[in-house]
Automatic annotation (TrEMBL):
Its EC number is 1.4.4.2. The gene is gcvPB. Pfam families: Aminotran_5 (PF00266), GcvP2_C (PF21478). It comes from Aciduricibacillus chroicocephali. GO terms for molecular function: glycine dehydrogenase (decarboxylating) activity. This is Probable glycine dehydrogenase (decarboxylating) subunit 2. Its cofactor is pyridoxal 5'-phosphate. It catalyses: N(6)-[(R)-lipoyl]-L-lysyl-[glycine-cleavage complex H protein] + glycine + H(+) = N(6)-[(R)-S(8)-aminomethyldihydrolipoyl]-L-lysyl-[glycine-cleavage complex H protein] + CO2. Residues 353-454 form the Glycine dehydrogenase C-terminal domain. The glycine cleavage system catalyzes the degradation of glycine. The P protein binds the alpha-amino group of glycine through its pyridoxal phosphate cofactor; CO(2) is released and the remaining methylamine moiety is then transferred to the lipoamide cofactor of the H protein.
Length: 486
C-alpha cells in the first residue's frame, strides 16, 4: 500500500535515465581485471536507480515532507531532549575552515580546529566539575562503555581484579545495563523506593567488595533529583566502588549542580541532546566522557593537550584503554555543541535549566488531574505519568500515543521507565513557548476525555496519518534494509 502511494526510488527507475552529464573519457581506459584480479571486479553492473535529477528532487523532497522533526512540531520525547537545534550551529559547521579539514592533516595545519576542541573540553570540564574530558565517543552508550572500560582498568591497576559487578537502578535507561554487559560486567539491579528514588537500604545490601561501579542518572529517569546522592556516593566509595553519572540529560541541572561535586568519578554527556546536536534517526552523535583525576590516566588516546602555545595529540599514554573511535570524535557535532555553549554563555545555560524545569512542572501540574501521577514531588526536566486509569477503560498508553499523531504532535516516550505501569514520559524542553505547551496539554486532556466517552476513537487512532499502525516488532526484529528486485 505504502509503495503504491509513494514508490521507492528503485521503482521510479527507467533504463538509461540519468541525472548527470559527464564529458567523454579522455584518458586510456583501465583494464580492471588486470589491475585488481578477477575476484574483486563486479560481474554485472550495480543495480542503481536510473532517474532524472527532477525525479531525485521530488522523491527526497516528498520523503522529507512526510518526516516529523523538531523543526515541524512539538516533540516531547522523554529522556531524549528534542529541543530546538539553533541554525547558527549549522552556519558555523559549514565554515570552510571547519568543514574542509581532514582528520589526516598534520596538527600544525589544523591548530584552529584543535583549539575549538580543546576549548569545548574546557567548557565541559567546567559544566560537569570533572578533571578531564575526552571527546572521542560518538554516542551516550559508547560513552558509558568507554567509562566502564576505564573504571575496570583502574581497578585492575590497583590489583583489584574481582570487581565484576555493575549496579544499576531498576529505572535506568536501557543502555546502562547493555553497556555494562558489553563491557563484560554482571549487572545487579537496585530498587526504587516509594518516592521514586534509589532505595538506600537495598543499595547497601547489594554493594560489596565485588562492586565495580554504580551507574546513576541524576535527575533520574523518573525526572526526580536523587536527594540522597551524597550518602549514595559515600556507600559506594566506602566499599571501594566507583560512581558513574549518566549525563545524557543535563538539561535540568546545568549551571546549578555538577556531577563532580556530587562525588561522581566519571560521567558522559550527550552533546546531541542537551547541547543541541541534531539527533533522531541514529546519529551522528557525541558522547564525551568526563573523569576524575584518578581515572584520567586511562582516558582513550590520543589525548588532546596544550603544550606551550601548541595543541597536540598525545599518544604516549601507557595506561590508556586505547582508541575507541577512529579519528578524534564526531567533529561536526562537537563543533555544534561548542557553538551552542558559546552562544548561550554561562548565564544562558543556567536559564536553560530553569525553563526546562519550569516547563516540565507546568505541564505536570496541568495534567495530573487527568492522568495518574505515580510520583508527585516537583520534577526536574521531565515527568512520568501513568495510563493506568485509562487502561481500565480499555485504552492503552500506546493508543494515547497514536491518538496524539492525529493532532500533529510527536508522542512522548511510552512504556519507559519500566518500573511505571503504562508509562508516559514527557519532556517539554526549554525551547517551547507557553502556547505550544498549552496546546499539547489541551490535547492530552481531550484524549483523556475521549478515553472515557468515546474510547474507540482512541483505540483506532491514528486516523489522519499516511500510514496507520505499523508492526513495530517485526520492523525491529526483521528489518528489510535492502532493495531486492523481484
Ligand atoms: C539517550 C540516553 C542514553 C543513550 O544515549 P545514546 O546517544 O542514544 O547512546 C543513555 N542514558 C540516558 C538517560 C539517555 O537519555
Amino acid at each position: 500500500m505504502a509503495n503504491k502511494e509513494f514508490p521507492l526510488i528503485f521503482e521510479r527507475s527507467r533504463d538509461g535515465r540519468t541525472s548527470y552529464n559527464l564529458p567523454a573519457l579522455d584518458v586510456p581506459e583501465t583494464d580492471l581485471n588486470a589491475e585488481l584480479g578477477d575476484t574483486f571486479v563486479r560481474k554485472a553492473p550495480a543495480e542503481l536507480p536510473e532517474v532524472s535529477e527532477l525525479e531525485v528532487m521530488r522523491h527526497y523532497t516528498g520523503l522529507s515532507n512526510r518526516n516529523y522533526g523538531v523543526d515541524s512540531g512539538f516533540y516531547p520525547l522523554g529522556s531524549c531532549t528534542m529541543k530546538y537545534n539553533p541554525k547558527i550551529n549549522e552556519d558555523v559547521a559549514r565554515m570552510p575552515g571547519f568543514s574542509h579539514v581532514h582528520p589526516y592533516q598534520e596538527p600544525n595545519q589544523v591548530q584552529g580546529a584543535m583549539e575549538m576542541l580543546y576549548d569545548l573540553q574546557a567548557s565541559l570540564r567546567e559544566i560537569t566539575g570533572m578533571y578531564d574530558v575526552s571527546l572521542q565517543s560518538a554516542a551516550g552508550a559508547q560513552g558509558e562503555w568507554t567509562a566502564l572500560l576505564m573504571i575496570r582498568a583502574f581497578h585492575h591497576a590497583n590489583g583489584d581484579q574481582k570487581r565484576d559487578k555493575v549496579i544499576v537502578p531498576d529505572s535506568a535507561h536501557g543502555t546502562n545495563p547493555a553497556s555494562a554487559t558489553l563491557a563484560g560486567f554482571d549487572v545487579i539491579s537496585v530498587k526504587t523506593n516509594e518516592n521514586g528514588l534509589v532505595d538506600i537500604e537495598d543499595l547497601k545490601s547489594v554493594v560489596g567488595d565485588d562492586t565495580a561501579v554504580l551507574m546513576l542518572t541524576n535527575p533520574n529517569t523518573l525526572g526526580l533529583f536523587e536527594t540522597e546522592i551524597l550518602e549514595i556516593a559515600e556507600i559506594v566509595h566506602g566499599a571501594g566502588g566507583k560512581l558513574y553519572y549518566d549525563g545524557a540529560n543535563l538539561n535540568a541541572i546545568m549551571g546549578y549542580a555538577r556531577p563532580g561535586d556530587m562525588g561522581f568519578d566519571a560521567v558522559h554527556l550527550n552533546l546531541h541532546k542537551t547541547f543541541t546536536g541534531p539527533h533522531g534517526g541514529g546519529g551522528p552523535g557525541s558522547g564525551p566522557v568526563g573523569v576524575s583525576e584518578e581515572l584520567a590516566p586511562f582516558l582513550p588516546k590520543p589525548v588532546l593537550m596544550k603544550k606551550d602555545e601548541e595543541y597536540v595529540f598525545e599518544y604516549d599514554r601507557p595506561q590508556s584503554i586505547g582508541r575507541i573511535k577512529p579519528y578524534y570524535g564526531n567533529f561536526g557535532i562537537n563543533l555544534r555543541a561548542y557553538t551552542y555553549i558559546r552562544t548561550m554563555g554561562p548565564v544562558g545555560l543556567k536559564k536553560v535549566s530553569e525553563y526546562a524545569v519550569l516547563n516540565a512542572n507546568y505541564m505536570k501540574a496541568k495534567l495530573q488531574d487527568h492522568y495518574d501521577l505515580p510520583y508527585t514531588q516537583h520534577c526536574k526536566h521531565e515527568f512520568v505519568l501513568s495510563g493506568r486509569s485509562q487502561k481500565k477503560l480499555g485504552v492503552r498508553t500506546m493508543d494515547i500515543a497514536k491518538r496524539l499523531l492525529d493532532f500533529g504532535f510527536h508522542p512522548p516516550t511510552v512504556y519507559f521507565p519500566l518500573n511505571v505501569e503504562e508509562a508516559i514520559m514527557i519532556e517539554p524542553t526549554e525551547t517551547e513557548s507557553k502556547e505550544t505547551l498549552d496546546e499539547f496539554i489541551d490535547t492530552m486532556i481531550q484524549i483523556a476525555d475521549e478515553a472515557k466517552n468515546n474510547p474507540e476513537i482512541v483505540q483506532e487512532a491514528p486516523h489522519t496519518t499516511v500510514l496507520k499502525r505499523l508492526d513495530e516488532t517485526t520492523a525491529a526484529r526483521k528489518p528489510v534494509l535492502r532493495y531486492i528486485k523481484k
